[in-house]
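Contributing new records

If you add data, match the layout below exactly. Sequence lines come first and carry their own label; structure lines follow with theirs. Keep one chain per record. Anything else will be rejected by the validation script.
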Amino acid sequence: MREPERHDNQSSKYQSCPWTRSPGQPDHGYIVWLFNVQHRPVMTIHKPMTTDPLSDLALLLPRAIAWAESQSANILQTGHPLTTALESLASSVGVKHPEKIRIIEIPELPLPENAALRDTGLKLGLLGPHMLGITFGYGIYVRTGHVSRRLLSHEFRHTYQYEQAGSIAAFLKQYIEQIAATGYYDAPFEQDARAHEAEHSEEWGDSWPAP
């Protein structure tokens, strides 16, 4: 389900209403009619979402970046810092500033409020109940009961990748390009994180320590 885009750059003298389709009619996007003060319609056609989730994700990149940045800000504000031992673990997989990392243990990983972004992420396997952890720069969510050195080393390596990319926006752009070329599992960022996860596969940790 998609919501019509806001026309914040339009004067309040314009009014809009969405185009709706009949049941069974193909979804070719949506049309917004703008009415000027003389009530003369001006039609603007918005680019439709495609039937390809990868193409949709590329179209949704600005919203994906905004969502990731908001999640990162929340974790950095309310999450737990690493213990000395986990800072060492993060450093061992390449993280330059492990002291900046914060973690929140949470029953369910968050999903975007935007329906198109959420549905596309679920279709591609980037989001969903099978995920145990997700990293947004220096902010990491881990599902309750699944904290381990194996999982954290994987997520810490993603933090390293964010550092190398230079920003959340730059990382996500590269990540989406990789997934478009190879698929999620074979994306170079995921292969790299799994390789470093394997190095610590025998070192299981306890539940996330309370501050």
